[in-house]
Write a structure and sequence with these properties.
Number of domains: 2
Helix content: 25-40%
CATH topology of the largest domain: Rossmann fold
Oligomer: single chain
Shape: globular
Radius of gyration: 27 Å
Strand order of the largest sheet: 4-3-5-8-9
CATH class of the largest domain: Alpha Beta
CATH architecture of the largest domain: 3-Layer(aba) Sandwich
Largest sheet: 5 strands, parallel
Length: 364
């Protein structure tokens, strides 16, 4: 007995290909409308974050145009209570809806600062020659760290701070060094109206009570305006920018060392783009100058460490053993893991020499 098969209508066969009657397609115009509606819905839901990101971007026509569009949309979202829904979604995902874009403590192998508890070893016994209890200042040798009384290190900064945090996590011996990190991508010192690093550092110092604070920040600052102490902004190309930015740097150094912590200020590395490199040299001169006038602050010259033998930019550098290692990312700005490890070793060497720390702080 044969098996009967249904015959396909002739109109369903086109040049030997079967046309699926179950599938329906939308005209191109309708697809475009759906896409635009989805884009508009996303813009309204995320208007606050998009506006904050635009406010932190480099001054110019693109920033102005973005704010012209996003400010009224964010206002509408707030009036219609849509912003509350967006905030609920952010919190459900474990994010702070009021944080700066890219803000929030960056989770890496270094633990982040506990919300309430102090760091381990919050009370140390002074070593001979070290400052006595009640006399803690940011000068003089540090106590010899032990497992019971570890050296407390806070790493702070922007995306470069993230990288050096990785490097230091491998450079320190974790049995005698307890390091925590607070790194805020896209942040800087020039615009406390976007992210107030001075207030954040004061909070970090209270919670972490660090012996040493390692700071690497400023890559975003050299591309934007600076907010003056009078509340006005000065464009990055204005001759008065240096003085206002120097004020911000000095203020931050004072806050960092206010409770007696030593500070290692790491300058910015050489950049592939010549124009950007010139701006970095300007900022580094400010960091170096201010470090020299603040007791307990030491400057580490990352620019010199990342130059090639001719004083130029290179993604690869030769090691003391004669090998070649890639030290820069493809963006021509950030350091690779190997580059951050080289810089971290220099930081540890400076700490040991300046504050008479033993070899035991170095990872074996």
């Amino acid at each position: 007995m044969g098996v009967r098969t249904a015959q396909r209508p002739a109109e369903e066969v086109r040049e030997g290909r079967h046309v699926d009657r179950g599938r329906r397609t939308l005209p191109a115009g309708k697809v475009l409308v759906v896409a635009l509606v989805c884009l508009l819905l996303w813009t309204v839901l995320d208007a606050k974050t998009l506006r904050k990101a635009a406010e932190a971007s480099v001054l110019g026509a693109r920033r102005t145009a973005a704010l012209i569009v996003l400010k009224p949309i964010d206002g509408i979202a707030g009036a219609l209570q849509i912003r509350r829904l967006s905030d609920l979604i952010e919190r459900a995902l474990g994010r702070d809806p009021n944080a700066a874009p890219g803000g929030g403590v960056v989770p890496i192998t270094l633990p982040t600062i506990p919300a309430e508890e102090p760091m381990p070893g919050a009370t140390q016994s002074p070593a001979p020659g070290a400052n006595q209890p009640g006399e803690r200042t940011s000068t003089g040798p540090l106590p010899r760290p032990t497992a019971k009384h570890p050296l407390r290190v806070l790493v702070a900064g922007d995306s470069f701070g993230v990288g050096i945090g990785y490097g230091l996590s491998r450079a320190f011996d974790p049995t005698v060094v307890k390091a925590v990190m607070d790194a805020r991508i896209s942040s800087g010192l020039a615009r406390p109206d976007f992210f107030d690093w001075d207030a954040q550092m004061a909070s970090d110092v209270r919670r972490a009570d660090p012996d040493v604070i390692v700071v690497m920040i400023g890559a975003n600052d050299v591309l934007t305006s600076v907010l003056t102490s009078q509340g006005t902004t000065i464009d990055v190309h204005d001759p008065n920018w240096n003085a206002s930015y120097r004020f911000r740097v000095a203020q931050f150094m004072e806050t960092a060392r206010a409770e007696g912590a030593r500070v290692v200020w790491v300058g910015l590395p050489i950049m592939e783009d010549a124009g950007y490199a010139a701006l970095v040299r300007r900022a580094n001169a400010i960091y170096r100058g201010e470090a020299a006038t603040h007791p307990g602050v030491r400057y580490v010259d990352a620019y010199r460490l990342t130059e090639d033998p001719q004083g130029g930019y290179s993604a690869f550098l030769r090691t003391p053993s004669g090998g070649v290692v890639q030290v820069r990312d493809s963006d021509g700005k950030h350091l690779t893991i190997a580059g951050n490890e080289i810089l971290a070793r220099e930081i540890v060497a400076v700490m040991r020499h300046t504050w008479r720390l033993p070899p035991s702080i170095v990872a074996r």
